[in-house]
């Protein structure tokens, strides 16, 4: 190529001449009359309802009942090998190891290892009530991104205090520097005659436990 | 590829296609209307979406530089590509540098636009599409016909046939007892692709949004194939049109509400992934962004045409378009079909070929596309604007401008519904029915005709209302 002018300079130059004479407004001038919040009378109730709308299983857990609920959810899924990523409360491991033969904390696990895991149990960082979305930022208790992708069952614990009312509120609670996964129901496709089918490449089952406690 | 009028004629004869399309578009239309109706601030979100994109476009140089800086600081590498050939060369070189002979791909309009798969193939690199619909299209040696549901023109029996005949040639075969149940077909795709996901060292993606402030990219999807590609391989290459930028992280609060509701009619799509450069110990450790111009700066230079660059590829305008519903996506001869294709493609490619010259005419100007567009792109206005351009460029204003205008005018005036539709465009800002049952001023270039004479006023019903009233499928 005749690299007398780099592609970068060429494109920026073309952009500049294309917008020359265009009125430049500041970002702050963009009108944002939409809702920044969408308060609901029963925020957690709405969150649960919206998550369930995606054909996910949602359960509200009574105070102190979390570990029992986690074990029960893993049993319901028919799991034998379970994974709870490093950073989940120690009580979870204790409860899980007393019930399941194979409990992994995900340290050093590779993709082939993940393929042998039946169910993964994680925390989350934010829940969004208006859309029924769970957000993972893959910090402690959530595992790296593949952990919640390869196994077929994802059991996710969301604390009531993590539930934001709407998308703007949810995004404000997140750190963009972290990799993030927004999850709304199980993996799904509607590509064949628009018939919805769950579990194409990601988990077929999403089981959400909503707890009043700090996980 | 024949120009739209001929291509449309062929496609119109395909009743299977029309049946599939009518079903699909009406289903999505209803879902969309329902979830949009849930938000009492939809009009404000739409206004903000349009304003953010317009603001970004008018400061695009600043935001591109800021984005490059942020990606670089986060451990990624930014490449710039003036056109398709340059973009393809960059991607091929990056893949070659890894020593790999195959890549997995997330569905991406930008890579379809530059025909990356063909370029990779020429370089001896296999590119596997991993979106179920794209897989159907690729295995069927076919081309996509819808932005969102690329295999919308195929029914389940055809898909089963394609899977049984083709999967085995390129990897894990379909099970021998495969039925045409959607769940069984999806399962076959899952097994076929799992092998490829687990093996691939390089992935290629597009992006729905790119945040200038943070250098973050955003991919919105349903199946999890996006997540597979974005996290399992060692190297990730994202090809991103320069119009995909938004200024700040906060701006996503608008687009993550507008996009899923407008496209699949869901409150939120199953998976949205965001990433910023590389994260040690999680996901690809080598990350490249190819910023693509390929005609976008041409569109940017046209003050009216520029608004097409606001498009977030939701496909809502396809699903409401009476012309698209009858002809399907292939007739447009463009990666971007439907109303948005009719205005975007001729701007990206220019209007020299017969296909591109015909595209601004592939519409009834009924205005439904403008009404649903989440970033308020005035597609009817743009169509008229581009028609003027086609006429100016190719008939020559000096030689026989009135011929072109007259033939267009006779086409529009030959049918009261078309005229009403054309008037709807005009009525957005002006009074169109003139004194005593004569028509008033039509939008340019028809204004050159109506300005000179009085014509009888058409029936009061617009094409749009007529269409809605007569659209049998909607009442089901
Ligand atoms: S033009 Fe508007 S409605 Fe059509 S795909 Fe783009 S954003 Fe969606």
Quick description:
Chain A has 215 residues and is of the alpha/beta class.
What does this protein structure show overall?
The complex is a heterodimer of chains A (215) and B (476). Chain A is α/β, with parallel strands linked by helices and 215 residues long. Chain A has helices at residues 7-19, 43-53, 66-76, 90-97, 111-115, 167-172; strands at residues 57-60, 81-83, 102-104, 119-123, 126-128, 133-136, 153-159, 163-164, 180-183, 188-189, 197-198, 205-211. Chain A has a single domain (42-211), classed as NagB/RpiA/CoA transferase-like (Rossmann fold, 3-Layer(aba) Sandwich). Chain B has 476 residues and is of the alpha/beta class. Chain B has helices at residues 4-12, 15-37, 42-58, 60-73, 84-98, 109-113, 116-122, 132-139, 156-170, 182-199, 225-231, 252-263, 296-301, 316-320, 322-327, 338-349, 354-358, 368-372, 379-396, 401-413, 416-427, 447-450, 463-470, and strands spanning 77-81, 102-105, 126-129, 202-205, 209-211, 216-221, 235-241, 245-246, 271-276, 286-292. In chain B, the strands form 2 sheets. In chain B, strands 1-10-7-4-2-3 form a 6-stranded parallel sheet, sandwiched between helices. In chain B, strands 8-5-6-9 form a 4-stranded mixed sheet. The radius of gyration of chain B is 23 Å and the shape is globular. The interface between A and B is large, with 70 and 92 residues. Strand 9 (180-183) of chain A pairs antiparallel with strand 9 (271-276) of chain B, so a sheet runs across the interface. The site of iron/sulfur cluster has 14 residues of chain B, from helix 14.
